[in-house]
Amino acid sequence: MRCFTVLGPSQTGKTTLVAKLASLEGMPRKSASPYGTSLTEFDFKNESWCAIDTPGANEALALAQDALLASDACILCISPTPDDAVLTAPYLRAIEASGTPCLVFINRIDEPRGRLRDVIAALQTYSNHPLVLRQVPIREGDTIVGSCDLISERAWRYREGQPSALIELPPDTIEREHEARSEMLEQLSEFDDWLLEELIEDREPASDTIFAISSRILKENRVIPVLFGAASHSNGIMRLMKALRHEAPPAAALRKRLAGSSAAQETAISAASFHAYHRANVGKTVLIRAFADGLKQGASLGGGTLGPLQEAGSGKPIGGTVQAGSVFAALKSDHLPAPALLTQSASVGPPDWTTPPTPMLERILIPGSERDETKLSATLAKLAETDRGLKVMQEEGTGAALICAQGPVHLRDLRKTLLEVFRVEVSERAPNPVYRETISKPSDVRYRHRKQTGGAGQFADVQLSVRPNERGQGFTFGESVKGGTVPRNYIPAVEAGAREAMEKGPLGFQVIDVDVTLTDGQYHSVDSSDFAFRAAGKMGVKQALSQASAVLMQPVIRVDIHIPSVYSGGMVTLVSSLKGQVLGFDRDENAKGWDVFRALVPGGVLEELARSLKSATQGIGHFSKTFDHFEELYGKEADTIINTHGSGAQSH
User: Fold this and answer.
1) Which of 186, 277, 516, 525 could serve as a FRET partner for 557 with CA atoms 20 to 30 Å apart?
2) Quick check: 149 and 226 in contact, CB under 8 A?
């Protein structure tokens, strides 16, 4: 079996394209996962094929990346509008990082939107590989009615719902065809010395030889051929499928490519898992591409035993063994992670290029009932196993389930899966912002802890000096007690009490960057104890903090914003509007046509930054974040935060 992925932005007609390719000969067999990835198995020219159709939403980019683990080649399906080329930038980035041979298909060519050469020029901005036009359009007025293949120089006229008809090349297209063919041959000659010599000697190479050169160059992933058509009318579909058949490399080449970009030995890789999902009453289903013969139910794979196997398209049980190259679904094989490279005895992490964009939307999930509460954390852990675009954590302070999703659509799908598959109902809210407080002036206190109850009493007397520390220095404790006024064995208890007092200061937040020094005190030979000195340390520090002019501290986050260069100009205004500080930007060395824009922003604006960034970049931009430092916050903004999240909220 041969396998390819169709990927690209939403609304480019990917699903229609897959359906038409799969229906060229006979009846296709299709299945879909709850996450929107679908598999279609079909036969073409006595070979079996599997097409993976991935969702076009930017939030689902991780699904497209994972599908490339199973793909001998891919088809990037794009719009015929030059201005839409930027929408393909994330997909070209993923394809190039993975090393997957790619064909570009400009779809919906029946809708006149611009010149093909403008579309290709706009696309080339984001591609390190040369884009090589393999056809020229035949036009009548503004309408494209057919195409001419630049290798065979044969012309075809589109016929609605039927195979295209072979025609003479119209005279008004001849000059354009010669020009485009010369350009194509020049581009191909950069990767073939024989062809270069033929062109220099002004000899006309035979079509069969050019086809062979073109096929080799795509298998070696040197160029990206560009074809066009209109899938909804079946125009250009047969030519695309034939190109894929002749030029896509075999499964063995994929196995070698995966070994080269991971820690796995080529000969040891038996299979690659590329997608997994949970279904009610079925459990976990893992989709797998086999690279070795002999896999069957009960065989060893990934360090465990394979459960029942099914055909990926039809869902029919597989009784015998699976051949190398086949795509299949494994049930009751919960030990298999996805995505992963699988040997008989272990599962190896997938190559780095499958790492999804950093999730930007943080939400607290609130279970609907006590029963749901006990199930939620285990269920989220299961989902995070099958969805690497999802991060699961706990909220600081409350311990509530905190998830990081790719965006609102991803979050909606997650809640739907929780309800429909696991019967766990959740509502959601934004997480509490992480604020701190510190002090702005020193304070000295004397605190005496005395209690007399039945039996032994409690007595501890401490004299404390509380001072602001340098930013980032954290909590420090020291002592300068002379003459044994506080015995040495009680000093650790005073420190423990002081640390406890840091958990919540007068503004209602954790206290940072404070130095506490024990300078003097008194004890009682009978009534003093660790407990008493701990209590004295805690209450003494609390009293000192309340006298030391508490200041609210907000987190400042460093963000690295990844965007196509065309959007960089708008980033200064965007960051400034969120009270951020621009640090600068560089070209992204890992992706042509992209910039990395660096800034410092207040922690409280991250969600707004995610929203504004999506809006400013047509959903393409994303950022990664790291905590940088805390800084003081004053005035009305600070008062609002204290009243909403701090001591003001707790006193209501």
Assistant:
1) 516
2) no
Dihedral of CA 392/396/401/403: which sign?
negative
336 in Cβ contact with 273 (< 8 Å): yes
Phi, psi of 275 (to 5 degrees): -165, 145
**Could you tell me the residue ranges of all domains in the chain?**
2-254, 271-313+325-354, 365-427, 441-548, 553-646
Which burial class, exposed, middle or buried, applies to 316 when counting CB atoms under 10 A from its CB (0-12, 13-18, 19+)?
A: exposed
CATH of domain 441-548: 3.30.230.10
Terminal CA-CA length for the chain? 67
DSSP string, 362-412: EEEEEESSHHHHHHHHHHHHHHHHH-TT-EEEE-TTT--EEEEESSHHHHH
User: In terms of C-beta distances under 8 Å and separation of at least 24 residues, what long-range contacts does 240-244 make, across chains too?
Assistant: 240/21, 240/75, 240/103, 240/105, 241/21, 241/24, 241/44, 243/103, 243/134, 244/4, 244/73, 244/75, 244/103
CATH 3.30.70.1450 correct for 2-254: no
Query: Do 365-427 and 441-548 fold alike per CATH?
Result: no
- CA neighbor of 435 nearest in space, from 516, 542, 556, 547: 556
Measure the CA dihedral 410/416/420/425, to 10°: 120
What pLDDT does 649 receive? 63
Beta-bridge partner residues of 166: 156
455: confidence class by pLDDT, cuts 50, 70, 90: low
Task: Enter the DSSP assignment of 328.
Answer: E
pLDDT tens digits, 394-438: 887 778 889 999 988 899 989 998 998 899 989 999 887 789 999
Lowest mean pLDDT among 108-117, 147-156, 632-641: 108-117
Residue 518 near residue 491 (C-beta atoms within 8 A):
yes
Q: Is the pLDDT of residue 349 over 60?
A: yes
The CA–CA distances, whole Å, from 397 to 138, 473, 567 equal 66, 22, 38
How long a stretch of residues is the chain? 652
3-state helix, strand, coil in the chain (%, to 5): 35, 30, 35
Specify whether domain 365-427 bears CATH 3.10.290.10.
no
Convert 509-518 to b/e letters by CB count within 10 Å (16 or more is b): bbbbbbbbbb
Strand 224-228, strand 102-106: pairing: parallel
pLDDT for position 13: 92
Q: 């079925």: which residue's tokens?
A: 282
Give me the CATH topology for the region 553-646: Alpha-Beta Plaits (3.30.70)
The whole-number average pLDDT for the span 479-486 is: 90
More confident residue, 35 or 185: 185
Joined tokens for residue 400: 């509530």
CA gap 558, 466 in Å, rounded:
31
CA distance 59 to 538: 48
Structure tokens at 633: 């916050």
